[in-house]
Amino acid sequence: MEVSGTVISVRDLVKDYPGPAGRVAAVRGIDLDVDAGEFVAVVGRSGSGKTTLLNMLAGIDQPTSGEIRVAGQRIDELRGSRLAAWRGRTIGLVFQFFQLLPTLTVAENVILPMDLCRTVPPRRRRGLALQLLDRVGIAEQADKLPATLSGGQQQRAAIARALANRAPVLLADEPTGNLDSATSESVLGLFAELAADGNTVVMVTHERDLSGYATRQVTLADGLIRADVRACAEPGGRS
Ligand SMILES: Nc1ncnc2c1ncn2[C@@H]1O[C@H](COP(=O)(O)OP(=O)(O)OP(=O)(O)O)[C@@H](O)[C@H]1O
């Protein structure tokens, strides 16, 4: 799916959770626009609402109020199978602990979303999976089981899986949280390359040094945007 212009548009987004001592206001009124090709890092203290925001962008959590438009679709109005079909075509999810299926090979893990969404004819699925694994730099690991790969290689496999249905939006929650610093940098570099290729990437992170990778840093505090800063330098051009 080719998407240009504003890909994510959020208006007055609010999320309350019920709690033993009354409601917890996790997100308290966020406005945010993200354009195609941006690599946005969402940062902030623990409990500031980062994961809640990301899960609402993915259609995993429903907002209490407000509007979310992703790739032209009002997702706060979608439910059930329509929401699942939309997510499969539009969103690639990347998690801290990779969440690859351990009994499938790396290539089979990448093929799985294609099988579920049927966006690619069956005879083309393995070829596309191999192309994606090549794109993320682990083509030679295609027929191995995930447990035999390093952490960084497993995260690259998970990123290839996230791209399997040509999803234009990648949402990543602490994707480097389980990786050493050199491997984290290479994964951040891969996200920066994918954004430069036109994907839109939103990543929740506790990484401190994002310069040269993320094109924009949005800081949350108490469920609100406290700062929204665009990088001056081109991504990939670390100095
Ligand atoms: N399912 C839930 N039920 C009740 N409260 C929740 C739920 N999920 C999150 N919260 C609360 O909402 C607030 C925001 O949580 P969230 O996980 O979005 O923060 P975060 O910035 O991602 O934190 P962390 O960096 O620790 O992952 C916190 O006060 C949290 O306790």
Automatic annotation (TrEMBL):
Keywords: ATP-binding, Nucleotide-binding, Transport. CDD domains: ABC_MJ0796_LolCDE_FtsE. PROSITE patterns: ABC_TRANSPORTER_1 (PS00211), ABC_TRANSPORTER_2 (PS50893). Residues 8-239 form the ABC transporter domain. It comes from Actinoplanes oblitus. This is ABC transporter ATP-binding protein. GO terms for molecular function: ATP binding. PANTHER family: ABC TRANSPORTER ABCH.1, IMPORT ATP-BINDING PROTEIN. Pfam families: ABC_tran. It comes from the Bacteria.
